[in-house]
Amino acid sequence: MSVLTDEDLLVAVRSGQADSLGILVARWEIPLMRFVSRMVERPDDARDVCQETFLRILDKADAFRDGARFSTWMYQIALNLCRDQTRKKRRWGRLLITPPAVESDIPHEHAAPETLETNPAAALEDNERRGAVRRALSGLPREQREVLLLKEYEGLKFREIADVLGIPESTVKSRMYAGLDAMRTSLTALNIQ
Q1: E strand or H helix that includes residue 94
Q2: What is the distance between the alpha carbons of residues 141 and 127, in angstroms, rounded to a whole number?
Q3: Which domains, ranges and CATH numbers included, belong to the chain?
Q4: Are 109 and 71 in contact (CB under 8 A)?
Q5: CA-based Rg of the chain, rounded to a whole angstrom?
Q6: Rounded distance, CA 149 to CA 136, Å?
Q7: What per-residue confidence (pLDDT) applies to 98?
Q8: For the purposes of burial, counting CB atoms within 10 Å of the CB of 118, is it exposed (0-12), middle (13-18) or buried (19 or more)?
Q9: Tens digit of pLDDT for each residue in 93-151?
Q10: Is 50 exposed, middle or buried, given 0-12, 13-18 or 19+ CB atoms closer than 10 A?
Q11: Whether pLDDT at 60 is above 90
């Protein structure tokens, strides 16, 4: 039996097969959570955005263009929700001061739980490096941060990022390289390799 593509599953969702959405959620919940957690500060907000993304996918399945990629469409929805979340926070201000998402709140594909037990110094150094990268990323302008996250963390191609953001591929590349330069400058100042 062949495995259905994401696009095939979305067609099934359109025809009322709700369990197809469950398969899409199972495939994409961890990558989506990883992406959203890097875009919004609070883990609770990230979970809300992910949940709302899947609800919008269900609600707007008929709007999906044939021939498009599901992942591109899903990231567009999630990115717009992240932007909305950021605008709301800015508009209303913070009533409570909350710490940013910590790395342990974000699921990782390649996490090695035994690192802390076998080499605490390496684990501490790795944690410091991740924190420095996270701070450098959060210091970038939104446009550069979005491109870097989609390219470096989510593995999208320049063409896919252009589709997600609705901008020319050349603009994606210029934002990518400007973001990388800013990251390099920031991390070099911190003496992070």
Answers
A1: none
A2: 24
A3: 1-99 (1.10.1740.10), 113-193 (1.10.10.10)
A4: no
A5: 18
A6: 12
A7: 42
A8: exposed
A9: 544 444 444 444 444 444 444 445 567 777 777 778 878 888 888 889 989 999 999 99
A10: buried
A11: yes
CB 73 within 8 A of CB 64: yes
In single-letter form, the type of residue at position 154 comes to E
96 phi, psi to nearest 5 deg: -120, 140
Nearest CA-CA partner of 23 in 44, 48, 54, 45: 54
The predicted structure's pLDDT at residue 132: 81
Query: What's the predicted TM-score (pTM) here?
Result: 0.70
Query: Cα separation of 95 and 79, whole Å?
Result: 24
Residue with tokens 């590349």: 173
> CA-to-CA distance for 103 and 190, rounded, in angstroms?
19
